[in-house]
User: Which sequence fits this backbone?
């Protein structure tokens, strides 16, 4: 029988063991984190106060920004602390809490992206019924499902993580508590956790991505039937930002979670995780603002008003 031990804390090995790189990474990720907070909070405030941005598309976008703030905040502060700390530890309970919120927010985000794709389908393929079919009540119900489902699934997944046994090795080869590196250092009940992680990730990514793909297939078909080039351009402009966000988020998560945890995959996944935990939440408000005419107009008006007050 393996010699199971009671774990009270883990050691996060982080991105690098080189001191000079740790200082550089601290500065870089601190700047990225501040830009993430400012960009997403600004997006939420703009949408809440601007009459031009009261359509369902912006309602869902405000929730995407809200989730991105918490997604990044679940990981980045601890990573920054460990970059400048001698003891790079996280408590066992803290590790489980971080796992819980990470899994929950990932599920919430993938299904919000799916809901946003459905919203674009309704707006472009059923424009006459869009106002009645996508009422405020319907939008609230649609956005509630990702939150309820995401946090429920995460509770089950975290309980399986809690069921893992450890035999003395408490060094996590990552900068936050993630399932693949935890599975790699566990010595008991590993197979159940490993296969359920792959199955649950596979089912949820496949289902949510199917909603996105079906929605955009129907959108493309509708765009090809449009006689006006201006109409096609306008339809594509409202979808381009969303497609960019979907491609980045799904691509990195599939690379991370649809593979069996090995030394090589964990090391590669660590680099990929930097992208979807810090970079993507920073880029999302930029993508949606730079490629969206309504948001750019609202930002310009806000800048003009601010200058006039001075």
Assistant:
């Amino acid at each position: 029988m393996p010699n199971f031990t009671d774990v009270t804390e883990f050691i996060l090995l982080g991105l690098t063991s080189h001191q000079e790189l740790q200082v550089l990474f601290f500065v870089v990720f601190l700047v990225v984190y501040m830009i993430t907070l400012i960009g997403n909070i600004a997006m939420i405030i703009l949408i809440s106060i601007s009459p031009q941005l009261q359509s369902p598309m912006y309602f869902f976008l405000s929730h995407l920004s809200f989730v991105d703030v918490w997604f990044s905040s679940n990981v980045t502060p601890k990573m920054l602390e460990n970059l400048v700390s001698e003891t790079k530890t996280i408590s066992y309970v803290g590790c489980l809490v971080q796992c819980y919120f990470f899994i929950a927010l990932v599920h919430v985000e993938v299904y919000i992206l799916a809901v946003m794709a459905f919203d674009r389908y309704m707006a472009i393929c059923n424009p006459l019924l869009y106002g009645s079919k996508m009422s405020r009540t319907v939008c609230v119900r649609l956005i509630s499902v990702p939150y309820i489902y995401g946090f429920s699934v995460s509770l089950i997944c975290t309980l399986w993580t809690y069921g893992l046994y450890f035999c003395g090795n408490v060094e996590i080869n990552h900068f936050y508590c993630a399932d693949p590196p935890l599975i790699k250092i566990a010595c008991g009940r590993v197979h159940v956790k490993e296969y359920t992680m792959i199955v649950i990730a596979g089912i949820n990514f496949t289902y949510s991505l199917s909603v996105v793909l079906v929605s955009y297939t129907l959108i493309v078909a509708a765009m090809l039937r449009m006689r006006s080039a201006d109409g096609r351009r306008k339809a594509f402009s409202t979808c381009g930002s969303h497609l960019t966000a979907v491609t980045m988020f799904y691509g990195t998560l599939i690379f991370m979670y649809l593979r069996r945890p090995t030394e090589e995959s964990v090391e590669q996944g660590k680099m990929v995780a930097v992208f979807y935990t810090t970079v993507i939440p920073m880029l999302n408000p930029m993508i949606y603002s730079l490629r969206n005419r309504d948001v750019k107009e609202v930002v310009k008006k806000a800048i003009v008003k601010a200058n006039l007050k001075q």
About this structure: Residues 300 and 306 are 10 Å apart (CA to CA). The first helix runs from residue 19 to 49. The first strand starts at residue 9 and ends at 12.
